[in-house]
Design brief:
The chain is about 70% helix and about 5% strand. By secondary structure, it is mainly α. The relative contact order is 0.09.
Length: about 300
């Protein structure tokens, strides 16, 4: 990413903070009421005060532990089940109807189930987090695997490869872009649900502390929790996206100025043996169609399509 883009992003964030500071310091009360909101300075002071205490880091570590554990389980289960449903009719018939019935149920609605099912709140929160991230990964994996062309699989079979070779050499690498799309969505949904679960049944965590600040009307503390949640969500989603880019480096690179041109649209000029190709020229194209130009040598310019 260029320095100009970083500067633009920083300017966007700074402009949002300036608007926030202006609305809260002037106690704007039109249709939206900002007189109860803390200013940017108050939130920054509360954040600096909280960051110097042990409970803040304990809450942060608890939330990160829950999100990493639940998301890792969801990633493994979602990829495995999605691949099985996409490639096996038996799995699709046995698991498909059950999962489609459970998929519309919000993960946060499973809090009573988690309380009854698991012996501790910690395990229940991890279960809710895993459930929240599981379905986006499942759906994206199923569609990505189902969209693969069978040509490569047939090529592996022709060369004597078995099912394991097809799975690990063709199916999973080919579906990686779609899988990481589901993982990016899943990490965001997981943060929403883990914070909600901590507010309802947690003992530690950023969500629990944010709700406690709200109950005692500590609005700067509430905004400290919101900022912390946003920063953690941004860091984890960025980590997932960067991992996806590293694992899919074999994909065609995109130019920042626009999409990659198709192979049918790429042309070059052939100027005969011993001459380097150059961009096609309209005059050269006409000369190649009607005859050599004067002074062009024994090899007139000809434009042809180049296919990979």
């Amino acid at each position: 990413m260029t320095g100009g883009r970083w500067l633009l992003r920083a300017a966007s964030l700074g402009a949002a903070l300036l608007v926030w500071q202006g609305l809260t310091s002037l106690d704007v009360n039109l249709w939206l009421r900002f007189e109860q909101f803390p200013t940017v300075g108050e939130v920054a002071g509360a954040f600096a005060e909280r960051a110097g205490t042990g409970p803040f880091w304990q809450d942060l570590a608890s939330s990160l532990r829950r999100i990493v554990t639940g998301f890792a389980l969801a990633a493994v289960l979602g990829v495995a089940v999605g691949t099985a449903i996409a490639r096996s009719r038996i799995a699709a018939d046995v698991l498909g109807p059950l999962l489609e019935v459970l998929r519309p149920v919000p993960a946060i609605a499973l809090v009573p189930v988690a309380i009854l099912l698991f012996p501790s709140n910690e395990q229940g929160i991890v279960f809710i987090t895993c459930t929240a991230a599981f379905f986006p990964v499942l759906v994206s994996t199923r569609h990505a695997v189902g969209a693969l062309t069978p040509v490569w699989e047939e090529a592996v079979l022709t060369m004597g490869g078995g099912r394991a070779r097809i799975l690990f050499s063709v199916v999973l690498p080919g579906a990686l872009p779609g899988i990481f799309g589901g993982l990016s969505v899943g990490i965001g949904v997981a943060w929403i649900c883990v914070i909600s679960a901590e507010m309802i049944s947690g003992e530690y965590g950023v969500g629990y502390r944010t709700w406690q600040d709200y109950t005692v009307i500590d609005y700067p503390g509430v905004f400290v929790g919101m900022v912390t949640i946003g920063a953690l969500g941004w860091l984890t989603s960025t980590a997932v996206e960067r991992a996806g880019r590293r694992l899919t480096r074999w994909l065609p690179a995109r130019d920042s100025s626009g999409p990659v041109p198709s192979s049918a649209a790429r042309t070059r000029t052939w100027r005969g043996p011993g001459r380097s190709p150059r961009a096609p020229h309209p005059a050269g194209a006409r000369a190649g169609a009607t005859g050599p130009r004067s002074g062009s040598g024994p090899f007139p310019e000809q434009t042809r399509e180049v296919t990979p």
